[in-house]
Amino acid sequence: METAAFYILAAITVAGCLGVVGQRNPMHSVMLLITAFGGLAGLYVLLDAPFTAVTQIIIYAGAIMVLFLFVVMLLNVPREEPGPSSVAALLGPRGMKAAVVLSVLLAVEIVWALSRVGIGWFDEQTAETVSSVTNIGRSLFTEHALAFEVTSVLILVAMVGAVVLARKER
Q1: Distance (Å, rounded) from C-alpha 118 to C-alpha 125?
Q2: Could you say which DSSP state residue 63 is in?
Q3: Which of 6, 42, 50, 95 is deepest in the core (most CB within 10 A)?
Q4: pLDDT tens, the chain, 170 aa long
């Protein structure tokens, strides 16, 4: 039964993600992203992580997607405009060289970061500290308070920027 539920939720998630990328209408893309987030929350439930599933629904499918819908409706973009047929045409020869260099740098950074973390990084944490909502909340609002506040300011700035961009000049 769990295997069937996994495949159904995984198919919903993958189909939603492919729909987000394939849609020309931004409103449909946002709605399909909510579907993908719902499928992902279901996968978290199957992994016996109900707190993460509820957080996924409340934060991503709730707050972040409302922000996305607000921006899409505010900008009133009916359809995506067709762009150049290829990345090379969009970037040009210099841009392609820069893209290759940046891609190599990203790959080197990922390898470096993974080598610093090591394979047994999760073993250092006990199940009690990871599974307790109280410990997660205490860690979020004490050790990681700056990151939490910076994220909220970033979302506020994005919303104000969308309002400024959508404002009609008089």
Answers
A1: 14
A2: I
A3: 42
A4: 889 999 999 999 999 999 988 888 888 888 898 899 999 999 999 998 888 888 888 888 777 777 777 777 777 666 656 655 555 666 677 777 888 888 899 889 888 877 776 655 555 555 555 567 777 778 878 888 888 888 888 888 877 877 777 666 65
3-state percent breakdown (helix, strand, coil) of the chain, nearest 5: 80, 0, 20
Position 64, amino acid: I
Report whether 52 contacts 44 (CB < 8 A): yes
Residues 66 and 159: beta-carbon distance below 8 Å: no
Other CB atoms within 10 Å distance of the CB of residue 64: 15
DSSP 93-105: HHHHHHHHHHHHH
